């Protein structure tokens, strides 16, 4: 999609989610808000505005699939019909969570520099020092989210009277922000397995009924965990997309990792991750099996309607296995009904120049959203 089409998609998803809580938003103002979000994303090969919309679309689809939009919001006939068996999920999540998760998905990588947390810490960046080397980027994204919300979003979501928010508004901004921030912070891959453990523990509680009936405090904790599970799955959903789409994201991520390695070497650091273009299928299978499979299976146990996600994950593992054994993509990749017309012969190679779409030049958000990521002790020369 082109930039304008991505903006349109984002506007549609935000307005649809807002309808769940009877928020009457004006299209023009929502588009202006989305344009502000877009301006805070850099043109990285992977962590860019296209990724933000992609993650939001996955979140949006999952929320529709579990029926969270049914009560007040619009439903699209092309989406999966929700089952009637997800008692824990559909009774704990609330319509406002749809708004929080859709907007949080759009904001979850705001200002991402195309460098990972490990780099931020190793290079002793100001941002790493600011957050004490803990979930550096996730804390930064959450802070950007909160600042943009307070400056722009609340102006047209919460009615104001005499310069102050109206108490008659049914939209609870603090509740919205709490759920969104919790979900954004959960996307830290360094805490991936800790998070999976929490998913499994939640499933065990639901199955045993040991925590029912829920106290108000328990309800909020379970609700925040479920919401975070949705965004976390959406954040790495490219591995459960149809293979011809999934593979394109692999290419972009490898390109971004390679660029980070180049920066590391320019600073006198060793490459933290080496992309071996001859063994990409092996590395992909390892990630799918060690990180993807446990997460998507744990979440599908909690939400049976999402079982199609781990099923596609297994199809993609088979596809990578086929490429590893045969040095070519299967004529009809597992999980697809038709032949794939996409040529993978060079696209999985890290050195490919086919990066993300070239969006319009970024408009500066000023120092508010772009603190220096350059190490104190290093001087960098751009070419």
UniProtKB/TrEMBL annotation:
Annotated protein name in UniProt: 3',5'-cyclic-nucleotide phosphodiesterase
Gene encoding the protein: PDE2
UniProt keywords, alphabetically: Hydrolase
Class of enzymatic activity (EC top level): hydrolase
Top-level taxon in the UniProt lineage: Eukaryota
Keyword Hydrolase: yes
EC identifiers of the protein: 3.1.4.17
């Amino acid at each position: 999609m082109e930039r304008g089409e991505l903006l349109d998609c984002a506007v549609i998803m935000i307005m649809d989610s807002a309808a769940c809580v009877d928020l009457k938003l004006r299209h023009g103002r929502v588009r202006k808000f989305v344009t502000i979000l877009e301006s805070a994303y850099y043109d990285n090969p992977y962590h860019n505005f296209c990724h933000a919309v992609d993650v939001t679309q996955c979140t949006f689809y999952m929320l529709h699939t579990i029926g969270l939009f049914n009560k007040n919001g619009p439903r699209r006939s092309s989406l999966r019909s929700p089952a009637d068996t997800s008692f824990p999920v559909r009774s704990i999540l609330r319509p406002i969570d749809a708004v929080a998760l859709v907007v949080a998905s759009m904001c979850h990588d705001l200002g991402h520099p195309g460098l990972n947390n490990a780099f931020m810490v190793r290079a002793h960046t100001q941002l790493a020092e600011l957050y004490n080397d803990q979930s550096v980027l996730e804390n930064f994204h959450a802070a950007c989210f909160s600042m943009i919300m307070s400056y722009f979003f609340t102006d047209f979501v919460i009615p104001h009277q005499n310069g102050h928010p109206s108490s008659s508004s049914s939209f609870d901004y603090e509740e919205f922000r709490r759920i969104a921030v919790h979900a954004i912070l959960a996307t830290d891959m360094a805490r991936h397995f800790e998070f999976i453990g929490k998913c499994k523990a939640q499933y065990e509680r639901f199955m045993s009924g040991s925590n029912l009936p829920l106290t108000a405090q328990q309800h909020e904790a379970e609700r925040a965990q479920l919401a975070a599970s949705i965004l976390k799955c959406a954040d790495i959903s490219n591995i459960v997309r149809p293979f011809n789409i999934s593979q394109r994201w692999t290419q972009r991520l490898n390109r971004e990792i390679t660029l980070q390695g180049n920066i590391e070497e320019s600073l006198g650091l060793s490459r933290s991750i080496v992309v071996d273009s001859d063994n990409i299928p092996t590395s992909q299978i390892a990630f799918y099996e060690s990180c993807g499979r446990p997460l998507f299976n744990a979440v599908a146990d909690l939400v049976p309607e999402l079982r199609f996600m781990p099923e596609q994950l297994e199809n993609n593992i088979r596809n990578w296995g086929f490429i590893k054994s045969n040095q070519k993509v299967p004529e009809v990749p597992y999980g697809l009904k038709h032949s794939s017309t996409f040529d993978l012969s060079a696209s999985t190679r890290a050195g490919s120049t086919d990066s993300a779409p070239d969006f319009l030049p970024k408009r500066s958000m000023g120092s508010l959203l772009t603190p220096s990521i350059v190490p104190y002790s290093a001087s960098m020369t751009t070419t």
